[in-house]
Amino acid sequence: MRVCIIIPMYNEEVGAHECLSVIVPYLRALPGENTVLVVEDGSKDATRKIVEDFISTWGSGQVTLVAHERNQGYGAALRTGIRYAIDRGYDYAVFMDSDLTNHPRDLPQFYEKMGQGYDYIKATRYSKGGKVEGVPWQRRIVSWAGNTLAGPAFRIPISDFTNGFRAVKVSVLAKMALTERSFPIIVEELWQAKKYARTFCEVPYVLTSRAEARGRTSFSYGWPTYKAYLKYVWKAFWTKRLSKRI
User: Fold this and answer.
1) Distance from C-alpha of 101 to C-alpha of 181, rounded to nearest angstrom
2) Which of 25, 72, 136, 223 is the most exposed place for a label (fewest CB within 10 A)?
3) Architecture in CATH of 2-237
4) Listed residue (131, 156, 142) closest to 225, CA to CA
5) Cβ count within 10 A of residue 176
6) Which of these ranges, 101-110, 188-197, 213-222, has the smallest mean pLDDT?
7) Is the dihedral angle over the CA atoms 53, 48, 207, 147 positive or is it negative?
8) Which runs of E-coded beta strand occur in the chain?
9) Degrees (nearest 5) of the Cα angle 118, 120, 126?
10) CA 32 to each of CA 21, 90, 152: distance values in angstroms, whole numbers, following the listed order
11) Of the candidates 37, 21, 32, 38, which has an alpha carbon nearest to the alpha carbon of residue 104?
């Protein structure tokens, strides 16, 4: 099994080295062939150099870098990572954030489900063993409201629609036509997964705040983001479900 772990970075010089330093040792205990792909999205700080220096020190066998010359957005960074995984024949793509709020200690759960052949594997804060720590209550309410709306619309065995920690078969991603530039690409992807993925499952995880993860964010949420989320919730309501449980 060949797995590409896709990590987009933009202006993450504060936490880029720590992110890779924490993730790479976990790869040694994971089965198969694993690559961490950093998609550096035209940062204005030293993120790219930090990643290049890390690769020079650790070697290019486990970590590789693709850099955008200008900032194109979170969605574009994910599409670059997906294209990389497709072109190089990986079996699964795992999507993680660079701030360690998606901690690599949870990767073995994903690999177990990948070994069982699931098409779409999502981390969840809302099942047994999952929870949220240190996240402001305002964000918790927005997330709860979004997931409450999404559940009846998507009608797939997923309880956490708005977090981006997930593993997807590359053969499923290859069928998608993703267009969103920012965070709504996560829900756009789920909408298309409803059409192309046959099996779904979840693994529990604990979401921490970026402050606790010693990172910082260059992205912000606003009405355009929420509007785009709602657009895909509406589309999902009218999309026929092809998936099944295994």
Assistant:
1) 22
2) 223
3) Alpha-Beta Complex (3.90)
4) 142
5) 18
6) 213-222
7) negative
8) 2-9, 33-41, 63-68, 92-95, 120-124, 131-133, 166-169, 200-204, 206-208
9) 110
10) 20, 11, 36
11) 21
Q: In angstroms, rounded to a whole number, what is the distance separating the alpha carbons of residues 80 and 119?
A: 20
Q: What percent of the chain has pLDDT over 70?
A: 79
| CA separation for the pair 83, 70 (Å, rounded) | 18
The residue whose two tokens read 């699931």 is: 118
Q: What is the Cα–Cα distance from 121 to 85, expressed in whole angstroms? A: 17
> CB-based contacts of 43: which residues, under 8 Å, 6+ apart?
9, 10, 11, 12, 13, 71
73, two tokens: 């957005």
Q: Which are the contacts of 125, defined by CB distance < 8 A and separation ≥ 6? A: 131, 132, 143, 160, 163, 204, 205, 206, 207
Q: What is the pLDDT of residues 39-54, one digit of tens each?
A: 999 999 999 999 999 9
Structure tokens at 71: 């900032």
CA–CA dist 86, 80 (Å, integer): 10
Q: How far is CA 13 from the centre of its chain?
A: 20
pLDDT of residue 220 exceeding 70: no
Residue type, 41: D
Query: Cα separation of 194 and 202, whole Å?
Result: 15
pLDDT (mean) for 74-86 = 98
Place of tokens 């996560």: 186
The token duo for 127 is 């099942």
- Give the Cα separation of 19 and 40 in Å (integer): 13
CA atoms of 127 and 208, how far apart (whole Å): 16
Would you say residue 238 has pLDDT above 90? no
